[in-house]
Amino acid sequence: MRVVIEAFWDDEAKVWVASSIDDLGLATEAETIEALQQKLSVMVPDLLQPDHEGPVEVELLARNTYTIAA
């Protein structure tokens, strides 16, 4: 099974905001991408159907937009 999660950096809140793009109903945030991955490894299995067995592949699509001086 594969779960696709989109994340973006919210510069105002200073957190990564993540949500699933399917019907999983996942929404969370974390201060670092590593902390986000840790949260996802707990949340994703909890949100799966009770009868789901086996490994779950998580595809995390992260975006961060920033400006640099030219």
UniProtKB/TrEMBL annotation:
<protein>
    <submittedName>
        <fullName>DUF1902 domain-containing protein</fullName>
    </submittedName>
</protein>
<dbReference type="Pfam" id="PF08972">
    <property type="entry name" value="DUF1902"/>
</dbReference>
<feature type="domain" description="DUF1902">
    <location>
        <begin position="3"/>
        <end position="62"/>
    </location>
</feature>
<dbReference type="InterPro" id="IPR035069">
    <property type="entry name" value="TTHA1013/TTHA0281-like"/>
</dbReference>
<dbReference type="InterPro" id="IPR015066">
    <property type="entry name" value="DUF1902"/>
</dbReference>
